[in-house]
Write a structure and sequence with these properties.
heterodimer, A: about 0% strand, B: mainly alpha, Rna Polymerase Sigma Factor, Chain: A, Arc Repressor Mutant, subunit A, 2 domains, 8 helices, about 65% helix
Chain lengths: ~210, ~180
């Protein structure tokens, strides 16, 4: 088939309309949030003292970390799924969430006596944390990998890893409403491990499934 | 590459996405020439047929045109796809290359030179289900319109459009898996 002939076929198919990728990403995030919420409420649910907890700095700080992670990962994955889009600025924003966590850990180490560090770090929920963040995040991750197939990422493995970070950020946001361990020491350790697992899974998914 | 080209290409693709088939044909012809110039400069040794990469890039541009943000420049988008497909073509043949972005600026459009050879796209076309294959080749190789193809094959125009769309999507997918 000559290229001229191919163009005839492409032109005849011009009328077909697909949803613009930017809009599709918002839709995907909406569905992912609904899935994450459904999994949380159908399983462990939010903690019973949710309202009073919202007046404590430590509890609220967890949402700052996870939402900043999700927002920065969302901006980056959108750029990564569009060929030729600049990713430099979105890439730079990815340090925001880790930087906030490091800052909070330093503050916590100043405020809490050294004898309590171990207790705060281990907490009481680490197994649940490391089970439920991946569990809540796996559905959203599948959706985001599907979105990468719909898009056109020129770096599929990196884009897959960022899909894992986005799913992890979302899942951790919902999980944080359940968890009683609010110390940044706990969050910096176990949340990070759980999100890293989703990130690895995303990178593998990007390698295996995101071809175009 | 000048800013005028960029504005013109963006205008054509915007019109095409809004449903202007003439603008789309114009866009594809000019983009094909541009991508051909780019690919031919990159492929200096044998193993990869530049025209295969041009065709693969055009198909990817077609099936992924919803990934272009209409307020963003279109040429960086086109070259990012061409570069990805070129690297992919080399990788499939077990070679690694680096494709520099800044060299794109020196690319000139080149016309198609007909060459009788077995194209990757023919293999992908042969692998389609018969109904899709006959629709795609009727419109491409035989140059028939949607209406003529419908009459000739005795099916509705809608069925022709669906088969064409699915057939092209399948060819685009198969390209990447060879």
């Amino acid at each position: 088939m000559r290229t001229e002939d191919l163009i005839k076929a492409l032109d005849a198919d011009a009328r077909d309309k697909a949803m613009p990728l930017g809009k599709a990403w918002w839709l995907a995030v909406g569905v992912a949030v609904a899935i994450a919420a459904a999994v949380l409420f159908a399983t462990i649910g939010p903690r019973p003292d949710l309202m009073p907890a919202m007046h404590t700095m430590r509890f609220m700080s967890k949402f700052v970390f996870t939402l900043v992670l999700a927002a920065s990962a969302f901006a980056l994955i959108r750029a990564l799924s569009m060929p030729g889009a600049s990713t430099r600025r979105a890439m730079a924003w990815m340090v925001a969430a880790p930087a906030l966590v490091v800052l909070a850990v330093i503050l916590e180490l100043f405020v809490v006596p050294e004898a309590d560090w171990g207790k705060r770090l281990i907490g009481s929920n680490m197994m649940i944390c490391m089970t439920f963040i991946p569990l809540i995040g796996i559905g959203p991750l599948a959706i985001f990998l599907g979105m990468l197939r719909y898009g056109a990422p020129t770096r599929p493995v990196l884009a897959g890893a960022v899909a894992g970070l986005l799913a992890g950020g979302l899942a951790a946001t919902f999980y944080a409403a359940h968890c009683f361990d609010d110390s940044p020491l706990f969050v910096a350790t176990w949340y990070t491990i759980a999100i890293a697992f989703l990130t690895l899974l995303g990178a593998i998914g990007g390698r295996l499934f995101v071809r175009w | 590459m000048t800013g005028k080209d960029e504005a013109e290409f963006s205008r054509l693709l915007r019109a095409a996405i809004a449903g202007d088939e003439k603008a789309y044909a114009d866009f594809l012809h000019r983009i094909a020439a541009l991508v051909r110039g780019f690919v031919r400069r990159k492929v200096v040794q044998g193993g990869v047929d530049p025209e295969d990469v041009v065709q693969e890039t055009l198909l990817a541009i077609h099936v992924k045109r919803h990934t272009w943000r209409q307020d963003a420049p279109v040429l960086p988008w086109v070259y990012a796809i061409a570069r990805f497909k070129l690297i992919d073509a080399f990788r499939r043949r077990g070679r690694r290359i680096e494709v520099e972005i800044d060299e794109i600026a020196e690319t000139f459009a080149e016309p198609e030179t007909e060459k009788v050879s077995e194209r990757d796209i023919n293999r992908a076309l042969d692998g389609l289900p018969p109904a899709q294959r006959s629709v795609v080749s009727s419109i491409s190789v035989d140059g028939q319109s949607i209406g003529e193809t419908a009459t000739r094959l005795g099916i509705s125009e809608t069925a022709v459009r669906v088969s064409l769309h699915r057939g092209l999507a399948a060819i685009a997918k198969r390209f990447g898996r060879q």
